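Async update (no meeting this week)

Hi team, since we skipped the sync, here's where things stand on the single-chain job. The sequence we agreed to prioritize is pasted below, unchanged from the tracker. I ran it this morning and attached the output directly underneath so nobody has to dig for it. Comments welcome in thread, and please keep replies under the output.
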Amino acid sequence: MESYDYLIVGCGIAGITMAERFASQGKTSLLVDRRPHIGGNCYDHLDEHGVLIHPYGPHYFRTNSDAVVEYLSRFTTWQPTEYRVLSYIDGTYYNFPINLNTFEQIIGRPSDEAEMKEMLEAWRVPIADPQNSEEVILSQVGWKLYEMFFKNYTLKQWKLPPAQLEASVCGRIPIRTNRDDRYLSEKFQALPKQGYTAMFLRMLESPLITVRLETDFKDLGEDVKYDHLIYTGMIDAYYDYRFGPLPYRSLRFVHEHHDMHYFQPAMQVNFPNERDYTRIIEIKHATGQQVPGTTIIKEYPEDFGPDKEPYYPVPTAASRALYQQYRELADADRNVTFLGRLASYRYYNMDQIVASALTTFHQMSPAT
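Output:
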């Protein structure tokens, strides 16, 4: 009979953070995951060509939280970087998110911030209280830029038009009238110097943490005893789909290696209109790795189903209402703590997940 203070389901960044914090207080954890590796979707590794890749899509760490940086810096040094994205439309690489450089590309001549603001004011659709992603973008930049950069990309990604998605989906993408062409605006932007997996391995070094991969926690049976469960998987799966399955979107990744230093002019190139894939990622631009050749990853959005990973909760009013039914069950379940993107049915950035895990730990261990 095995006995632990905590059983943690899911060996991603949320579960790993909780296990490390419990170990710091002398508590034991059994960390289980269905996959054959640690790190969840944040897992990275060297491919057969020696290129460090993010096999489950790019994970751009950024944060405004000093506490999160301080915590993770115990386990890694950092590779400072600025994530830059282009959008490929009709044979042209446009700066993205939309900024003054993008505006100059569109009008075909030099301009300034004052003219861009004036033009956006003329183009935008006056919507006082945007209720969905289409209205959010139309209220900022109008129909032309919405159709160029957002409409079809969003439709490919979600298999739903922006008008049926919550405002937050497109609303989290900034619109700038200066020349700031960074994809993100947080004050701290970097990648773990040796990669995410190396950082996670350091977080799991305590002998109080046991990791068991390729394991479904429901198959553990009576051989494992624990005082409390930390669950980071799909909340609807935990409750055996009592109210029906929550909708998710999945992804298919196609890897290609090329014998050149860089394949494309930026770390990420979006394809809002051409191609079946939404984007090509060449993370080597951000890691600063110096190796011959490069590896790119094309992302194809897909329906979620058997043998597919649930990458994104679908942010609609109907799915939010269904999740609320599961949330009510979870709130009444005192022996389980639900944590992370899938358990909360909400899109979180990595720093938000770490911050949430640290907060949850302190709530469970008020003496710390």
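Quick observations from my side:
DSSP finds twelve helices and 17 strands in the chain.
The chain has a mean pLDDT of 96.
Reply here if anything looks off.
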